[in-house]
Amino acid sequence: MIEIQKLSTIALGVALLPFGYADKTYKLNRSCDTDKGLKLTRVVFSTKKTALTLTYTNLGASPVDICTPPPGHREAFFILDPTTNRKFGLTDVEKIAIKPAQSTIQSKRSLTFTLTFEALPMATKRFHLIEGEVEPEGGVTSWRFMNVRF
Questions:
Q1: Are 122 and 77 in contact (CB under 8 A)?
Q2: What is the pLDDT of residues 35-61, one digit of tens each?
């Protein structure tokens, strides 16, 4: 009897979900416009957030330190909808150091991390991923992915 109730609840729950509720996932292999060692590998849209998975590979011979500014910082990542010029702010960072801390990547090694943003419209087909409103200090080049399409 309990198993039947669970199945009925699950079936009813699925039937009541609004159209388009499920996450949309896109697998990509898009190189960063400003650093060929960085790739955007996955985009997940949901009604509550947009999550981007990126992989940084140290292509050089020496270790490299990388990090990202925290959400709300003027150097933090944001997504720009090029059609409306609307910005979607960074809300969470996973598996990469948050400035001023650093993640050290040894030569020929990679680090995969996730950046989470405010929810983009589920129908989004193109966006820009930009690191910061201003260039970072210390001669560091910001990461930019312009015209990401699925």
A1: no
A2: 999 999 999 999 999 999 999 999 999
Structure tokens at 9: 């609840």
Say which DSSP state 68 is in: B
Whole-prediction pTM: 0.84
Show Cβ contacts of residue 102 under 8 Å, excluding neighbours closer than 6 positions. Answer: 65, 66, 67
Task: Tell me if 89 sits within 8 A of 41, measured CB to CB.
Answer: no
Which parts of the chain fold into alpha helices (H)? 2-16
Q: What does the alpha-carbon distance between residue 42 and residue 30 come to, in Å, rounded to a whole number?
A: 9
For 7, residues 6+ apart whose C-beta sits below 8 A from its C-beta are none
* Cα dihedral: 92, 93, 97, 99 (round 10): -40
Q: What is the pLDDT of residues 136-147, one digit of tens each?
A: 677 778 999 999
